[in-house]
Design brief:
Elements: H1 2-11, E1 22-30, E2 36-40, E3 43-46, E4 53-54, E5 59-62, H2 73-100, E6 103-104, H3 114-123, E7 131-136, H4 137-147, E8 150-153, E9 160-162, E10 167-169, E11 173-174, H5 177-182, E12 186-194, E13 201-207, E14 210-216
Parallel strand pairs: 1-5, 4-6
Antiparallel strand pairs: 1-2, 2-3, 7-12, 8-11, 8-12, 9-10, 13-14
Length: about 230
């Protein structure tokens, strides 16, 4: 999708810069009038020349500096800690500056809190499945009694473990009786939702007060019926 956007920029002869993955920048200047100058990939980037920004994913971070090691390890550690805090201040300022410009998305908000998203959706009249987060089997039992078919999914964007021999990823799963019976009375905070039988999935993007939606026909395959990513 990034390449498609670049093709259109070239078609309209729009000057652009593509920053890939975890790009590092060095600071040239910041002034309190709201402008900044950065050096990125041997290019000088002046905020006054930026008309718009599209943030897809990844990040822009201050490049590390070489810290002269002290014979006292605690002093070296203190300098490293100071530099990390200072870097966060500068990175935060740049990210907030991006927010002040015409932009789609922002690095500062790339990690969405799923619970906040569900609550915000409900507050704006968007239908969402009934949801609970609990650590108690007794609470879960009441939820199952009320909604019968229940799924569980990760609280975050997903967890993954990888070794040289195997990968494990967390998908949305139906809460089976075997899984329920295997739970102890107390467990780690876990998210459960009412299972919605689907005819197809809809993925929506919200841009300038409009939903743009597409259908994912994943229900015909048993492996992807609950989670199309599977």
């Amino acid at each position: 999708s990034t390449c498609d956007v670049i093709d259109w920029l070239r078609y309209y002869n729009k000057e652009h810069i593509v920053l890939i993955d975890e790009t590092e920048y060095s600071l040239v200047k910041i002034d309190m009038n709201g402008s900044y100058t950065l050096k990125v990939n041997d290019c000088i980037l002046n905020s006054n020349e930026i008309s718009s920004i599209w943030f897809r994913r990844g990040g822009l971070h201050l490049e590390p500096i070489e810290i002269i090691e002290s014979s006292d390890e605690s002093i070296s550690a203190s300098f490293c800690h100071y530099y990390n805090v200072a870097s966060e201040v500068l990175d935060g300022f740049i990210q907030n500056s991006f927010l002040r410009q015409k932009s789609i998305n922002n690095q500062k908000y790339q990690s969405i809190n799923k619970l906040e998203a569900i609550r915000t959706a409900k507050e704006h009249g968007i239908k969402v499945p009934e949801t609970i987060v609990t650590t108690k089997k007794s609470v879960l039992k009441d939820f199952i009694c009320k909604y019968k078919n229940v799924i569980t999914k990760d609280l975050t964007d997903g967890i993954g473990f990888r070794t040289n021999d195997w990968h494990i990823y967390a998908y949305t799963e139906i809460l089976t009786s075997n899984l329920y019976n295997s739970l102890t009375n107390d467990f780690a905070p876990s998210l459960f939702q009412e299972l919605i039988d689907k005819k197809f999935e809809i993925r929506s993007f919200f841009l300038h007060d409009t939903f743009y939606s597409m259908a994912i026909f994943s229900q015909s395959n048993a492996q992807t019926r609950v989670d199309y990513r599977h």
